[in-house]
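#onboarding

Welcome to the new folks! Below is a worked example of what a typical request in this channel looks like: someone posts a single protein sequence, and someone else replies with the predicted structure as tokens. Don't worry about understanding the tokens yet, we'll cover that in week two.

Example request:
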Amino acid sequence: MTVFPLLALGALWCTGAFFHAFDAPSYIAGAAVFASWLLLLLSVFHRRTAWALVILEISTLAAFLSITPQQRFRNTVWQKPWRRTLAPRKLADGRYELKNVRDFHYRSEHDFDIVYRTVTVDPKLVSSIDAVFSHWDNMEGVAHSMLGLNFTDGTTVVISLETRLPEGAEQNVIDGFYHRYELAMLAGTPEDLYGLRTDHRGETLYVYRLDADQKTMRQMVRSLFDRAAEMQRKPEFYNSLTRNCTTGLLPMLPVANKFLSGDLRLTLNGMADQMLFEKRLIVFRRDESFGSLRARSLVPGLCRGKNAPPAHYAGESEARWLRAR
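Example response:
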């Protein structure tokens, strides 16, 4: 039967949905799984049975798609790091008032003082934007992606799309496919969002400067803040593959989306920095290799100003040859 592989994939997905997406007793989920695989087996011998399986799979998908974040998380108490998300408000003069900018003071990863700030920024004063990638447990294949928005008055706001975890929950890749987590857009200081990773989690963090003109950067800033405001009004589910820290964040940027669409390295995000390098979306020196750029983009630590950003940030003129040539 030519459709058998599709039916089998559907049954496999439904198995995950019964146990991870729906808040049903385990015996009901088990009975549904047994029924789906029994129908799959019977469909090999009786083609009409396949229609029953199709109906079951479509019904399961319809029930899954009917779940909304508002329903799922109606009475949820979020873990402290994600209790508040970025709440922007556009002012009449075009500036943005950013509420819930995180500035936690860490003694360790799980011991910190909770501090939130309200910051007002003007997209017209953006001076540069950084693409930031943090690797954990020495894994090169995956990374957490962030964006650092730098303004001429010295303000830096770091944007991070993250898995918003309920109290008592631990992040699980499988649950991430089945509407168990909310997608959260956080804003914070470099000392918080960078320093937490470099100084307390022992992660390897790289900061690259996007190669974008003033008009494009303003568009990026407005796009990010407008998106955050939309997420405040209409929460979204996190998805481990299609809507995570990288696949959800970088396509929000209009200038990047047309270059990055369809690139597998958006999913295998440990190579996202190399992707940006190859597509010439980040600043680098003439004839510089990616290995050289990566080495000097490593941030050893930013906790409370102990270390400076990478040395090549002292001046950008040497790297602006992409637009000048």
